[in-house]
Amino acid sequence: MRNRLVLISVILGVAAFAYFSGLYQYIAPDRLREVLIDAGPWGPVVIVVLFSCLEPFGAPGAVFILATATVWPFWLALLVNWLGATGAGMIGFAFARYFGRDWVEGRMPVRLRKWDNRLSEKGLTAVILFRLFFFLNPASHWALGLSRVPASTAILGTAIGFFPAIAVWTYFGAEILDWFMAQTASTWVPLCIAVAAFIAFQIYRRRRNARVDDEQARDDLTKEGLNTEIAEK
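Above: the chain sequence. Below: its structure as tokens.
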């Protein structure tokens, strides 16, 4: 119990420091890069701590990955990003399992709940696939914490599952950041429209499927009732 209190105190302390010190204003690749350069040899420690403590609660993981990719050589940036991502995954895991279970359960997407049995039954392989598929989605950290997977399996599976995506994002990080910075409104407006149209289509399809399921369920109940009446007669 004492270790859990220490852990949650550290997490909340880092989050509070980032908020009240104004560090949240620097959660953008170009500005975070300035922080890391100013931190000198402490830069890797700074990014691992910030990545681990802030990403599970909404800070985009890509921001940290892109910043390190433009500051340090590939192998150092890869190591830092990998440690930060794994730390973020496990802090989200610990938050769901030990501290915020009730809060998390009310916000867990249905598609992630369905992974519970797979994670619990297939162990390490399922955790690796889960991390490969959902990567740094904060809700996936929580889903893993709500499952019955042992903490040791979650740590190992998270570290292995995160590595390929972290390597790709770190290697191409500078190019990705340069591409984003070079884009104009003529690129972003059509892209936003396309994304909005895709989301609207998905919402429409889910509602239509839910309607069909409800109608099918009502038909089944009606048929069941008629069969019962016939049987009674």
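The longest helix spans residues 185-232.
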